[in-house]
Batch of 4 targets.
Target 1
Amino acid sequence: MSEGDSEAKSEDRQSVDWDARFRADDAPWERGELHPAFTLWLDAGLIAAGKSVYVPGCGRSLEPLAFASLGLTVSAVDYASSAIVWQWQQFKAAGLTGTLVTGDALAFRPDRPVDLYYEQTFLCAIHPSKREEYEAAAYAQIAPGGHLLALFMQKQERGGPPYGCDMADMRALFSGERWAWPDAEPQAFPHPSLGGKAELAVALRRKP
């Protein structure tokens, strides 16, 4: 178990005080349960023991512990130190280990590229001006042939966070030169505490 500050320091990307939001339990993006897409990808065989997974902007989500419970090697990063302390407490109580880091999720680099990158409410939380940096970081963090398990937030209103992840924009951002898109249409999962806004589940394969 490791808990600490990311060595890579950068200017704050957000105007939101995420740590204060967590401390005040003002976190409506939290589902309080595993995202149903987790089961979708587990049943599809993408989530499996022995794989490594990175969870950027993990917050107090249940997925990092669920991954570890299934035998995956977990790395998780968040700006909010209180969220990482919470994650550490869950792992400790379960007798499990993981790399849990307070810091910049885009600057973080695991010891080696991971098999899975679990994207839930991170991309929609950062300003759209940082999306090219996000894509470049994900491409560097994921091993060739690995998957970005993405949940793209659909939102008509302007501004954010959360910022809408229009699918035309996502296809341009994660271009076919570097990412293989599935043929099937993405499955929609309405968010119960964000006005039913749909999150579209897409498993992108990182090309060599």
Target 2
Amino acid sequence: MDTYDILLYGSYILIGVGAVLAILMPLIKSLDNPKSLLKTAAGIIGIVVLFFIAYSISSNEVLPKFAASPFNLTPGGSQLVGGMLITTYILAIIALGSIVLTEVTKAIK
């Protein structure tokens, strides 16, 4: 094992520790104010509902070149990826719309 491998594994460990702390620390801090947890839960539930709507309208069609090796894509996997893409598109449109709306209301005030 050379230096690159050691540093790569060290970076994996640091990314994992950072991800765990990024999730746990706000949860610990929000225990002081439980109402903030309700807002977080509502946001998560909203995104999950949006994903299930996007998943249900996405297609499960797989082209023959993606069904073979090296991709081995199944119809279920294709529908999952399609649902994720549609969810991403909807959230991006909402974000851009919110930015435009905020700038327009700032300009009016």
Target 3
Amino acid sequence: MSKFKDTGKKEIPPISTASLPDIVFMLLFFFMVSTTMREVTYMVDITLPEATELSKLEKKSLVSYIYVGEPLKQYQSTFGVAPRIQLNDQFANVNDIQDYVIAEREARDEAERPMMITSLKVDENTKMGIVSDIKQELRKSAALHINYSSRQKVER
């Protein structure tokens, strides 16, 4: 005969949820810190060309982007299907590039201005005529440090 008797079913104590808000806030803080927001809304379709010899930019805060490509479907009724230039979040003409470069230069510190890079993100199917026009405007505005964005060529 046993010394201890089982008198009935014992209730399982409820799970403590006291630390649940701490866990939720830790996860929220983690995702807020690790997520980066897109700086520009793309209005042009860009498929970057492939390249074999690439180098990574060190300071992306010094880079100003000029996007060139065919407008997205929702903008084609207004702007057509010919390649267009996008500066920040709006379409622009070649003549607007000088003002854009000057505004970007003024937004930087005095010490960072000589290190400013203009990166061209051009669709691989875009004709070189528009790229040459952009380069001429960049020369006129003394933006001589130009970078062409591309993607790494995959060996098969």
Target 4
Amino acid sequence: MNSLRSQNPFLLVLLTVGFLGLLSFLKPGLEVSGVKLRPVRLLADVWRPNPGAVAALAPPPPNGPAAPVATNSGPSAASDTAAAAPKTAAAVAASQPPVPANLPGLESFVAALRQTKATGSKTRIAYFGDSMIEADLLTGDLRNLLQSEFGGSGVGFVPINSVSADFRETVHQTFSPDWYEYNIVSDRRPGTAPLGIGGQVFLPRVVSNYDSTHIVSDTSWVEFRTGQRFAPLRRFAQARLFYGPGAARDQVLATTDGHRVPHALAGTARLNELILTPGTPARRLRLAFATRAPRPVYGVSFESPNGITLDNFSFRGNSGMSLTRIPFEQLAAFGKVLDYRLIVLHYGVNIADSRNKNYVFYEQAMTRVVDRMQRAFPHASILIVGMSDKSARIDGEFVTDPTVPLLLAAQQRLARRTHAAFWNLFAAMGGQNSMTSWVEQTPPLARNDYMHINSLGGQRMARLLYTFLMGEYAHPGAMPASVAAPDSTARTQAR
């Protein structure tokens, strides 16, 4: 009896495997009672079809006019009129639209770089993105490449608090737990706390009584220590604290490498700044705030008076469209004091979705974002960084998500419509199925989610973007019609 029972599990497994094996021979697209059966690929995880079966992308089309904007452009409306997505890896590859070409438009930035190279003047860059640049991923290496070539030091703008503070390598940050934070995803935000340029605002705890000669130790505080990975970041020559209006007697106690100096927060404008210049370049800064009423605080910028300053404005989960929640008056106020010469908008992983077969709604929303940036920062070039490759598991394989080329086309149309520059990151990293290559090579350049890069991938992307920028610097406006040369180390087809 026990012998028969011990054989039952084996027989059950054998019958199941045999049944699945028979199903794998069924014709794809077979329907039973109106229900389409999904294909069965029993050995999909250990076997891949001939790479030749995956069709290559067609060459990029000539640059044409932007597509007309539809009246009903929401995601559901777009999905209703779209055809169903291909069900096999080969069909996905064959149906991909052509790769959008790069577009020029960095004249203001290139002119600023030339001036910096000739005279040592400052060129400031704002890099907006999502988790792809979190913790200074990609931007840290890009900043280092630019500072090595054009001079400058410092990590740039750092908010009071960040989800990446514990693992960011370019600056180390600790803070007291009594700050109130509001950001672009906050449901309720007081009108007295407008969001800053990074989509955040912080309020220190109100202190009703304190000694005017010194600030007690339990007030809201934040401490910064310079990162040691890159030489230009190991010390800072200047720190600029940005804050909003508040009570006349508010103070901040600044401790720079052990040297303590109290400062009045006397500014009453929409945006104010306190410039802290240590006698010698410093490594550590601690700020303790004593405010008698709620006062907005935005962050601190560590920089030098010359060369390159690159500010990382990352926000996890952001699609870019929510940047319109930052009051335009606040953007313009930051524009006056920071004078950016390049604004980079790098989004995509949080908007690319297989349910969306049309991204006109995204194009419309981001057009408003770019328009606001152009008005708030009139001296800056705008660069749209196209969507990186992102994999989807189709027919047992990790291949380029079929929505990626659709979003890339919308991003190129966005750039053309707003007269911004466009860089096709998807093509630069290797094109179709390059994310699979980045994940599976040794050492890997991306994470196992087949979507996000790791630190090595950040270095590779930074080098690719730097090469693109330096190509514009060497030959402004002379960009060829074709896409950028793909990364030579990436495989463009699935194995």
